[in-house]
Amino acid sequence: MIKNLLILLLSTMLMASCTEKIDIDLGTTYTRLVVEGYITTDTTTHWVRLSKSTDYYSNIPSPLISNAIVTVNDGIETFTLIENDTLPGYYETPSDYYGVPGRTYSLEIELQDKINDFKIFSASCKLKPVTPIDSIRVEYVEKWEAWEVKIYAWEPASIDFYTFNIIKNGVLITDTIDEIGISDDRFFNGNYTNGAAVYYLMEENPDEVVNPGDTITLVMAGITKEYYNFIIELMDETFEYRNPLFSGPPANISTNISNGAVGFFAAYSNTYSTTVFQ
After folding, report:
1. Domain ranges of the chain
2. How do residues 16-52 score in pLDDT, each as one tens digit?
3. pLDDT tens-place string over residues 127-156
4. Phi-psi region of 260 (alpha: psi -120 to 50; beta: other; left: phi over 0)
5. Which CATH architecture group holds 135-252+269-276?
6. Widest CA span of the chain, in angstroms?
């Protein structure tokens, strides 16, 4: 009887401990400037977006920052980006602007009000060239239930890093940073790719389904190692990419913005190739 009572008491204690409510104070942290910006070889309106960081579990959008002075210098001239009238916090180049491979693009931001005792922030990124694509091919792979996008191009002997974006029938499919393809050149350095798979369009995603007659465009960008590391770290620190048992502890994501700001200012070359799926 004593043994049974002890078992019952122990079970009751365990059940009570499993259902006890524990409130964890996650606290807060200081506000940081968040910068997102790009200069590419495309002739288009380029932009830099400025906002303030918020707490992880905050349910309000990140506040955008207006009335800043944002300039870019390409080593030859300095030009001022103009804030969009209808999109506060977005600072834009003229629509006929394009980046030039080989130049280093330096960003300077002067805020109207200080963030963490700083009003001026800066960043720089070299715009690397990218090898042209000879052609692409799209094939359905039944075992993956996906359409495989293959690339045919010479890969230079230098150490290079790439991103891959997909446009389907004129619509960008990879419209968030966690959807883009990314790769280094360790398996093809100095060789012809000859149909290497660089992206998979999954059948389970309705917007990625490819039908006969659809036009698929692959956009390959030549990026810096620093921007490559930023994207890898950003993907690794998001919930979808972390394994709670085998991933390392969370860490600060690298940045090229000065004075404690977060985000990245990138410059890169784009090259395009298009095919019609049959």
Report:
1. 33-126, 135-252+269-276
2. 555 555 555 555 567 999 999 999 999 999 999 999 9
3. 999 999 999 999 999 999 999 999 999 999
4. left
5. Sandwich (2.60)
6. 91
